[in-house]
């Protein structure tokens, strides 16, 4: 659901995919190959939201701000399920874990990994390539090349998802039985723990 607000109409690139059960309101700019999942609320009612190319904002995320400010997700930012970004700038190729909360005027440097359930209070500056966990947050070490490659691979899967949704997502009635010829999905991606175990 996409709404104009106070004269501002969201701008969504044609290659992006905004799920019909997401809500995008007002002064919002969404770039190429962006995925916005169901339940996400992207509220550009009091300020501007810029979501650059190749980002994903997953299910039940909230992106908002205090009046007169801008929230920015730089290219390839990966915002995990249920996260809240409020008035912050999230750097290029950053992973924000599930249910993390990033508060006002936070600046997250490029290529950081923010752990699930982390809380970053207002006005914090997180240096590039930081691995951040906890509530309150702590920087525990630098993101390794291996971890960054894993994160980037995961984001690339989401970069393909808008095109796949445009091509194949459609409402349907459920089946009542499992068909004998139901295909098996391939994994194609490992969790960090699985990758480290190999």
TrEMBL record:
Q: Does the keyword Transferase apply?
A: yes
Q: Which organism is it from?
A: Hymenobacter elongatus
Taxonomically, the superkingdom here is Bacteria
Q: What is this protein called?
A: Transferase hexapeptide repeat family protein
Which CDD domains is this protein grouped with? Answer: LbH_paaY_like
Q: Which PANTHER family match?
A: DYNACTIN SUBUNIT P25, GAMMA CARBONIC ANHYDRASE-LIKE 1, MITOCHONDRIAL-RELATED
Keywords from UniProt, A to Z, are: Transferase
What's an example of a GO molecular-function annotation for this chain? transferase activity
């Amino acid at each position: 659901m996409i709404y104009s607000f106070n004269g501002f109409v969201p701008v969504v690139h044609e290659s992006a995919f905004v799920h019909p059960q997401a809500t995008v309101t007002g002064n919002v700019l969404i770039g190429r190959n962006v995925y916005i999942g169901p339940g996400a609320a992207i509220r550009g009612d009091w300020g501007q939201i810029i979501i650059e190319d190749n980002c994903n904002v997953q299910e039940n995320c909230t992106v908002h701000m205090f009046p007169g400010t801008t929230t920015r997700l730089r290219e390839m930012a990966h915002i995990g399920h249920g996260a809240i970004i409020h008035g912050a700038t999230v750097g290029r190729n950053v992973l924000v874990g599930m249910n993390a909360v990033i508060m006002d005027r936070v600046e997250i440097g490029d290529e950081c990994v923010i752990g699930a359930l982390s809380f970053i209070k207002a006005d914090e500056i997180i240096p590039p390539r930081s691995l951040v966990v906890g509530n309150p947050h702590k920087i525990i070490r630098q993101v390794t090349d291996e971890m960054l490659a894993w994160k980037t691979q995961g984001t690339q899967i989401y970069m393909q998802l808008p095109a796949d949704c445009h091509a194949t997502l459609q409402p349907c009635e459920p089946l009542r039985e499992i068909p004998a010829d139901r295909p098996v999905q391939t994994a194609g991606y490992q969790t960090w723990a699985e990758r480290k175990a190999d």
